[in-house]
Recover the amino acids of this structure.
């Protein structure tokens, strides 16, 4: 039983490990020539997210719109498979950049390209990434981009998966310390002076880590595939709480936290037709990606998206 528990808990934390990927290097999409534009100090950016939320350490809802420029030059997504074709599309980062008007007609004109004038879209994320991989994702980004630069990040699920045995045994302090220091390293690198060109400002929006079971740890009750079905029901709020608290604390120093954990908490794998997870019980389904887009849109602009 201990073996099955360990396998199951390792599966519990596999919240962002799958998904496909096209290339190891970031690619630009959707037009716009590279090249820095003046945009003030690279130390700019919002830090308006709160540390409240659920008992699992989620970020509080809210937006940073009042402190943003009225125009951006570039949008970058970084992180793990949630930001790299994990689940079923359309994917949130594509919708956030430019809405799919045929699928979501109510959102026509509510995207970064239309409202904030984003010219260039850079895909820098990689399925399977952990925070230890993030400094290299940052290094791989172009040296020069039109500014200001807006960045969304999803990271942390694979860190928890890798350290699952230590987490359940209460011996994950070293792993959490590493999670903190790697956040400090890659966030600091993104905000380094003139990282994307002279005077180009950088604004960071990072999501905290969601729990597909909404705190219940009940994968086995919902016909989840593979090893997930072996997972005995184990309340999971405390597992996510400590890790998300670190993420919130570090991100707030240089950017804004997007409340992914709380956004998805009532729409887990046990929510029936209201679930926002795909059949793998790990990644967002099509409604889930739409809701991640909505979450980032509100966090970035401070405004609710269309119904």
């Amino acid at each position: 039983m201990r073996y099955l528990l360990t396998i199951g808990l390792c599966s519990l934390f596999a919240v962002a490990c799958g998904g496909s990927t096209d290339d190891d290097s970031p690619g630009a999409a959707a037009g716009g020539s590279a090249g820095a534009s003046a945009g003030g100090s690279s130390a700019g950016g919002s830090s308006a997210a709160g540390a409240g939320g659920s008992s699992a350490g989620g970020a509080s809802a809210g937006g940073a719109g009042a402190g943003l420029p009225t125009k951006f030059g570039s949008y970058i997504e970084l992180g793990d498979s949630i930001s790299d074709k994990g689940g079923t599309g359309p994917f949130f980062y594509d919708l956030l950049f430019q809405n799919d008007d045929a699928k979501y007609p109510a959102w026509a004109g509510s995207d970064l390209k239309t409202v904030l004038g984003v010219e260039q879209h850079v895909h820098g994320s990689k399925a399977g990434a952990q925070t230890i991989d993030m400094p290299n994702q940052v290094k791989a980004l172009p040296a020069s981009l039109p500014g200001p630069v807006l960045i969304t990040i999803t990271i942390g699920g694979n860190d928890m998966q890798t350290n699952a045995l230590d987490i359940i045994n209460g011996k994950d302090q070293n792993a959490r310390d590493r999670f903190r220091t790697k956040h400090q390293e890659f966030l600091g690198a993104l905000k380094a002076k003139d990282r994307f060109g002279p005077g180009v400002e950088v604004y960071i929006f990072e999501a905290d880590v969601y729990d597909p079971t909404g705190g219940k740890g009940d994968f086995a009750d919902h016909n989840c595939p593979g090893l997930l079905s072996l997972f005995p029901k184990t309340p999971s709020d405390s597992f996510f709480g400590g890790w998300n608290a670190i993420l919130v604390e570090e991100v707030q120093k240089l950017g804004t936290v997007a409340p992914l954990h709380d956004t998805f908490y009532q729409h887990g794998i046990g929510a029936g037709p209201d679930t926002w997870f795909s059949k793998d019980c790990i990644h967002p389904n099509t409604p889930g990606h739409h809701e991640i887009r909505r979450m980032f849109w509100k966090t970035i602009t401070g405004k609710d998206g269309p119904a």
About this structure: The two ends are 46 Å apart (CA to CA). Strands lie at 27-29, 74-79, 120-123, 149-154, 202-207, 256-258.
